[in-house]
Amino acid sequence: MASKALRTVATRGKLLTRSTFSGYDVCMNPYVGCEFGCSYCYVRFFIKDDTKPWGEFVRVREHLEEKLPKEIAKGVVNLGKGQSIAINEARLVLGTMTDPYQPAEVKHRITRAALKALLHKDAPKFKKVGIFTRSPLVLQDVDLIRQLPNARVHYTVTPFPPDLLRVIEPYSPTTERRWDVVKKLKEAGIRTHVNVSPVMPGMSEEHIETFVEKLIELKVDEYFVDPMQPYKESFDAFREACKKVPRISWQEIEDTMTNKIEYGTWKMMYLGRWQAARAKLQHKMPEQLPIWSDHEHRVWVDMRTSTPMSRRTYGDEAPEPAPTVPTIHTDFDDEVPIWD
Question: What is the pTM for the complete model shown?
């Protein structure tokens, strides 16, 4: 499906800033806005446009190719509030407020320019680099990603039925396509983390067994199971989208999620079902790390042991991927839809 987003150019703005994402100190976003336009996205609260709704605008940060090397060359990132961090001690994440591999990347290659800057032989190197995306376009950069220090890709696979997924995430790839991308990332030797997100009542329960089996089959290194936080603006967008899928009773879902006791009870039920499905298969990949990630209550739990995890140091213990890996050949054309 072709994007309907209006693309404009952003020519200024700091590129390396403080990250609030778990396990990362610094973030970078190659675009402003996101063409995927997911109804539930939290970024819609922070990034606005005067004329276009969320998902229908994207600003291409064309100054990145020239400015990012200069920011990296300083060797230090200013985090604000009088704080800074040396780049060689910092953990960098791409894609906290946008998808770095949204359709605009086919033409503009801003994310690829960022990776090249990070890998320049004279540039200070970050301690760890992660990328958040749901796009197949990430495969076009596996040659660069596997050279990054302590690299990993955080790849989102949404546990919704296909008809609902198409109206909630109108420009995102199908579930089958996303699993194929995960498979190829693993084959390329890249540490791969799957975000099973967002998990919601009345939409996600039927996918538990299938997702658990797929995560084991593809030998995913770790994954989050992430219940959605009840944002009013996201609810408004969901409500409109669900009108296109009459079999979904959105009002019942919203009533559950806005009642703290009922939603808490549902979360524990869902976690219990996931644990039961996982327990049957975990022996096939005991090193896989499954994480229950309840952002509403700021709780991270290692599902293997039911013990709390540190949100700030998650992933720092991860080993480097093996350097000897097969080559993946990918061809992308700006005029060819790749999302289905």
Answer: 0.89
**Contact call for residues 141 and 151 (beta carbons, < 8 A):** no
DSSP letters spanning 258-285? HSHHHHHHHHHHHHHHHHHHHHTTGGG-
| Burial bucket for residue 253 (CB in 10 Å: 0-12, 13-18, 19+) | buried
The answer to whether the peptide bond before residue 100 is cis (omega within 30 degrees of 0) is: no
DSSP E strands: which ranges in the chain? 6-10, 17-18, 26-28, 31-32, 57-61, 76-80, 83-86, 91-94, 128-133, 152-157, 191-199, 222-227, 289-294, 299-302, 307-308
What's residue 249's pLDDT? 87
Spatial separation of the C-alpha atoms in residues 189 and 327, rounded to whole Å: 10
Residue type, 105: E
Helix, strand, coil abundance in the chain, percent, nearest 5: 35, 20, 45
Type of residue numbered 124: P
**111 vs 44: CA distance, rounded Å:** 21
pLDDT at 4: 64
- pLDDT at position 45 is 72
Distance CA 152, CA 319 (A): 10
- Could you tell me the residue ranges of all domains in the chain? 8-150
What tokens does 290 get? 């499954």
Structure tokens, 180: 């194929």
Taking 70 as the pLDDT cut, the residues of the chain under it are 1-9, 11-12, 48-49, 54-55, 314-340
Give the whole-angstrom CA distance, residue 242 versus residue 325.
43
Burial class (CB in 10 A: 0-12, 13-18, 19+), 7: middle
Distance separating alpha carbons of residues 57 and 51, to the nearest angstrom? 9
Instruction: Count Cβ atoms below 10 Å from residue 80 Cβ, excluding itself.
Output: 10
* Distance of alpha carbon 43 from alpha carbon 238, whole angstroms: 15
For residues 10 and 310, give the distance between their C-alpha atoms in angstroms, rounded to a whole number. 36
DSSP 174: P
